[in-house]
Amino acid sequence: MHLSSVLYALSDPVRLSIVSELNKLGERTCGGIDVSVVKSTKSHHVRTMREAGVVHVRVQGTQRLLSLRKHDLEERFPGLLHAILQAYEGTEGQKVSE
Amino acid sequence: MHLSSVLYALSDPVRLSIVSELNKLGERTCGGIDVSVVKSTKSHHVRTMREAGVVHVRVQGTQRLLSLRKHDLEERFPGLLHAILQAYEGTEGQKVSE
Question: In this prediction, does ipTM exceed 0.90?
Answer without folding.
Answer: no
